[in-house]
Amino acid sequence: MTRAAELRDILRCGEGFERAHSYSVFQLDSLQVISGQRLIVTAHHYWQKGNLDLDKSGLLGSWRMISWTRKSVETGEVTDALGPEPIGYIAYHADGRMMATVFRRDRLSASVSGWSEEEKSQLFDDMLAYVASYSLEGDRVVHHVDGSWNPNWHGDLSRPFVLEGDRLVISGAPGVDPRTGDEVVYRMEFTKVLAD
Predict the structure, then answer these.
(1) Taking Cα atoms as reference points, which of 118, 144, 121 lies closest to residue 131?
(2) Containing domain of residue 124, as a range?
(3) I want to staple 39 with a disulfide (CB 3.0 to 4.6 A). Which of 12, 33, 45, 111 is the partner?
(4) Which of 45, 152, 149 is nearest to 88 (CA)?
(5) Percent of the chain whose predicted confidence (pLDDT) is above 90
């Protein structure tokens, strides 16, 4: 086992401060650290930021959306963000990239003659799509968005999440509903897509 792999194992098991302190010189990716105490602080900082890929493994793969609700900050009312049973997926890849797409289930049908301006606007409002890199910060996954159906969503989207087996819940995520302009808190629930 390499020293990098050994340190990852130590930190994963929670033994880092005692066992890893014994290292005096350590190469961690492109970071060389000298002195045991500095090693612990730096390695633990990198681990907390998700850069050792210790906690990403549970997120990896494709997740099918089960529900997406929005709670109005002003009134407390909870409604479906894109209607009941939206068609949506979120996918996290080992290379640190992710993508998300969601469509309203009852959106407009295909049209050979095209759509009116009003219908185009409705089609835009009835979906969500973006691509990003991602990182973990504690109990949050941060999507660093570099392309989105809505330019207002470019930048960092910090999302609290919970993993329970094949279930992923992203909740407590504040935002502005792009359709209404209301301040809302979103809750999204997904189930893991398993290979056949």
Answers:
(1) 144
(2) 56-192
(3) 33
(4) 149
(5) 51
Low-confidence winner among 34-48, 71-85, 123-137, 139-153 (lowest mean pLDDT):
34-48
Total domains in the fold of the chain: 2
In a shared domain, residues 43 and 64:
no
Contact present, 154 and 145 (Cβ < 8 Å) = yes
Among residues 171, 135, 179, the alpha carbon closest in space to that of 153 is found at: 179
What does the mean pLDDT of the chain come to? 77
CB 142 within 8 A of CB 134: yes
**Rounded distance between C-alpha atoms, residue 134 and residue 50, angstroms:** 10
Predicted confidence band of residue 118 (pLDDT cuts 50, 70, 90) = very high
Rounded to the nearest angstrom, the gap between the alpha carbon of residue 92 and the centroid of all alpha carbons in its chain is 7
CA 130/CA 153 separation, integer angstroms: 8
